[in-house]
Amino acid sequence: MSNAEGTKPGHPGGPPPGHEYHIQIDRVHYKVTDETMTGLQLRQVPPAQIGPDRDLFEVVPGGTDRKIGDADVVEIRDGKRFFTAPAQINPGK
Amino acid sequence: MTIASEGYVRFLGEAERLGAVPIWVHTHPGEDSWPKASRWDNEVDKQIADLFRLRSGTEYYSMLIVSPRPRCFTFTGYLQSESGNPVPFGRAWIVGDRIASVRAFDFPAPPLHAAFDRNVRAFGGGIQQTLADLCVGIVGCGGTGSAVAEQLVRLGVRDFVLCDPDQLSASNVTRVFGSFPTDIGRDKVDVVAAQLARIAPEAEIRANKSMITSEETARELCECDIVFGCTDDNAGRLVLSRLATYFLTPVIDCGVLLSSGAGGQLLGIDGRVTTLVPGQACLVCRGRIDTKRAGTELMTPGERKRLEEEGYAPALGRVEPAVVTFTTLVAATAVSELLERLVGYGPEPRPSEILLRCHDREISTNLQEPGPRHYCHPDSGKLGLGVTTPFLEQTWPQ
Ligand SMILES: [Zn+2]
Ligand SMILES: [Zn+2]
């Protein structure tokens, strides 16, 4: 998440600085202002930030969901949905 | 062993696309294993239940534990909504070329009644137990349907859904099992239900006085394990044929056709028993439904009369010849088909249709592949699709 004061200027044709994007992470709605965010930044969006024991995914409607690594850069758009999943399940025992 | 998120997350999106509930399945290996959730299994359920619901877009989480047993398997499992208590699975119904029923580990079978001794000597206690567990739908309670019902209840089936909108006429008493002249004018489903209750007072019988072409009735039938099609109407057969694909409910459809010459002499006695299971052609692909007649059957009486007069619709309501020996023969063949699919005493590959040419004293069988691009074809993605909007993806008369 970043503050509204444009740390990055919007590229030509993009929305004016200060535009808010509505996204969801694990069903909860958040507003963000950056046009692109890294996985690490997205993990810091929820008040209790997402721990390393969970993987972050972007919902790809009609396709295979994309796993987002900490350094991966995601283009933010209104209505994008993300969710987290246990990184490892140990079904044994 | 550990499973990384990429290993299972993609199936959740797939479940959403299919409108399906994903099930978390694992095994407890060994024929002496205990197929019940360990404390650790419960921990895993807690970790993943929310994610399963969230990403698959259903309100349910479901899990299944399977263990091998000699020549079979056992299991426990449950379905849980976000707010409710888990609903345990009681029984698995396995449908294919063969059909089988397996009780869950926590739902042991009650002891079999000694009355079934002769059946058990023929096909064993497991099959007898399956018959006792089955919910069977019978569409049409005339000569064939009543004979199917009579045999099933004597075999040990104890749960029935009967559908027929008609009343018993004087000429029905010649064929309908359990009917007496005093029953004329009563609903056929009530006459047959009373007969089943005389034979098995503990049986659960739901009598439905409507056509299967009503959406409500079709929905009730999709809860049956297997459905016998004993109706003459083509529109009803169109529904039954789809039921087999969308709900993987085996349908055993039967019919009799007596052909008489102008002088009333019997020329042909044809019986047909078609078993609809996944991988086999539906009744439409087999040409067993007259779709033009089906269309006419669904018209309002006024509309039908006008089109019949103009020659645009086949005339309906003709009284067909029918004889108890032939309706009973076809009914017995249909019920035997259920037994064969459960016991497996017949040849392989298993034929999916039996044609009785009684006048020639001949029987022939066939297998037919689903038509390409048709709903019955596995590639169509319709197999086991379940509840759709509209129901069975067909239009329903209002
Ligand atoms: Zn386990
Ligand atoms: Zn077909």
Overview of this protein structure:
The complex is a heterodimer of chains A (93) and B (398). Helices cover 5% and strands 33% of the residues of chain A. By secondary structure, chain A is mainly beta. In chain A, strand 1 and strand 2 form a beta hairpin. The longest helix of chain A is centred in the middle third of the chain and has 5 residues, at 39-43. Chain B has an eight-stranded mixed β-sheet, sandwiched between helices. In chain B, helix 5 (143-155) runs parallel beside helix 6. Chain B has 398 residues and is an alpha/beta fold. Chain B has helices spanning 5-18, 39-56, 117-123, 125-133, 143-155, 188-199, 215-221, 234-246, 291-297, 301-309, 324-343; strands spanning 3-4, 23-27, 60-69, 72-81, 87-88, 91-95, 99-103, 135-139, 159-163, 204-208, 226-229, 251-260, 266-276, 353-357, 362-366. The radius of gyration of chain B is 23 Å and the shape is globular. The mean pLDDT of chain B is 94. The A-B interface holds A 26-27, 55, 57, 59-60, 62-65, 67, 83-93 and B 1-6, 8-10, 12-13, 17, 26, 38, 40-41, 44, 47-48, 50-51, 54-55. Strand 8 of chain A pairs antiparallel with strand 1 (3-4) of chain B. The structure holds zinc ion (2 copies). One zinc ion (ZN) binds next to loops of chain B.
Summary, kept brief:
The complex is a heterodimer of chains A (about 90) and B (about 400). With about 90 residues, chain A is mostly beta strands. Helices cover about 5% and strands about 35% of the residues of chain A.
| Physical arrangement of strands within the biggest beta sheet of chain B | 10-9-8-11-12-13-14-15
Low-confidence stretches of chain B: none
Q: Based on CA inertia axes, which overall geometry of chain B fits?
A: globular
Tally of strands of chain A: 8
- Major sheet summary line of chain B: 8 strands, mixed
The top-level CATH class of the largest domain in chain B is: Alpha Beta
End-to-end Cα distance of chain A: 40 Å
Give the class of chain A from helix and strand content and strand pairing: mainly beta
- Cofactors, ions, other ligands: zinc ion
Structural class of chain B, by secondary structure, is alpha/beta
The share of residues in helices of chain A is: under 10%
Q: Tell me the total number of β-strands of chain B.
A: 15
